[in-house]
Design goal:
With 376 residues, this protein is α/β, with parallel strands linked by helices. The chain contains twelve helices and twelve strands. It folds into two domains: 6-115 and 262-329, Response regulator (Rossmann fold), CATH 3.40.50; 117-256 and 347-375, Rossmann fold, CATH 3.40.50. The radius of gyration is 20 Å and the shape is globular. Keywords: Signal. It comes from Natrinema halophilum.
Length: 376
């Protein structure tokens, strides 16, 4: 794997390999073993399209799986439409995918990860919980928040969704500022110094680049904020973020729009620990794992790949229900998005970093630990 999200790609690759081993040990699909062919997208749409195109030309590909960056997944989705190849997108968040599916009446593409709106809904709910339960520096009389997002189809829509949901809530939120930065940014000192001058109660940052997120955390510590909570999206689940962020990572609260439920991930965690000399990374690996298992279940329903076409694929997946590590996956007919939200089978999950590791702390029904308020 290469590109700025290479570490994420490696996690996804390992998760998919574990799923392949499970499928094949259970008899494969219609008696045939599953084979994985890996394409390195380099985190770039053109490179991703070219890599997948090469695979389609040189290998016998029945279904396309995976996908992290939304822009890359869109490029691959357009190629899959031309080639009429079924596709199950695993980790991409951006709603652009759902919009394209709906506008073009695509039958072939489905998307597992909830869209950016899930972050807006999830953060509004968790922030209300933190206020009501007076956690850490909470409550704030009139909470003031600074929003920061990377300038991508991931970061910008999440920031907009968070702002919209906070404005619609009854928490009297005051958005002090909204800033964006480039995907590969490494120096956040000047940005954070300016934000610090406004004395925010909270900084909420939406990033998909683990290295950039780690630098953001490190610079947050260097600038010297006092009594300010740093909130982030999924990146602290990646070891690169914590390593780069250093000890300042401890105390960071982060939310993922889709996570790993302890009660439903024992098999994967055990397989990971047996196979790899590294701690289980979480969401990216688990989504890639569930991704392949959903595909396998659909193909078994169809009866293998002999009669596979995009119409049969669409009909089968729309009638599918799969219990995965993140919850229950069911797909919507309108835009092929998995159902999401607090009241669906895929809840948002809140975590706290402490002792340089992650702990699931919200919502209460899924929490493995309480928030350590001694860090604030």
């Amino acid at each position: 794997m290469s590109g700025p999200s290479a570490s994420v790609g490696e996690e996804m690759k390992r998760g998919a390999e574990l799923a392949k081993e499970k499928i094949n040990s259970d008899g494969g699909i219609d008696g045939q073993d599953v084979n994985l062919h890996i394409a390195d997208t380099e985190s770039e749409p053109a490179a991703g399209r070219n890599a997948v195109s090469s695979l389609l030309q040189t290998e016998s590909i029945d279904v396309l799986t995976g996908g992290f960056h939304t822009d890359v997944s869109v490029a691959v989705m357009e190629l899959a439409a031309q080639e009429e190849v079924p596709q199950m997108i695993s980790n991409s968040v951006g709603g652009t995918i759902n919009t394209r599916v709906k506008e073009n009446n695509y039958k072939h593409s489905f998307k597992m990860a909830p869209p950016h709106e899930a972050y807006g809904v999830g953060w509004a709910a968790w922030l209300q919980y933190l206020q009501e339960n007076e956690v850490g520096y909470f409550p704030f009389d009139s909470p003031q928040i600074a929003l920061v997002g990377e300038n991508t189809s991931y970061g910008n829509p999440i920031v907009d969704s968070v702002e919209s949901n906070l404005q619609e809530s009854d928490g009297n939120w005051d958005v002090l500022s909204k800033d964006s930065h480039e995907y590969n940014e490494t120096d956040f000192q000047s940005l954070l110094t300016r934000i610090e001058s406004n004395d925010p109660d909270i900084i909420l940052c939406a990033q998909s680049n683990p290295s950039a997120a780690g630098n953001f955390i490190s610079d947050f510590g260097d600038v010297g904020f006092e009594d300010t909570h740093l909130l982030m999206t999924w990146t602290p689940s990646n070891p690169t973020t914590l390593e780069t962020g250093g000890s300042t990572s401890n105390g960071v609260l982060w939310l993922t729009n889709i996570g790993v439920l302890p009660s439903q991930s024992e098999t994967l965690r055990s397989a990971w620990n047996d196979a790899y000399d590294s701690s289980f990374p979480g969401t990216n690996a688990s989504l890639a794992y569930d991704n392949l298992l959903i595909v396998a279940k659909a193909l078994k329903e169809i009866g293998g790949v002999e009669d596979l076409d995009v119409s049969t694929w669409e009909e089968t997946v729309l009638n599918l229900e799969y219990e995965g590590t993140a919850g229950t996956f069911r797909f919507q007919e309108e835009n092929h998005q998995s159902e999401w939200g607090p009241d669906s089978g895929i809840p948002p999950l809140g975590n706290q970093v402490r002792d340089m590791s992650n702990h699931l702390v919200w919502p209460d029904e899924h929490a493995e630990a309480e928030i350590d308020e001694g860090l604030y």
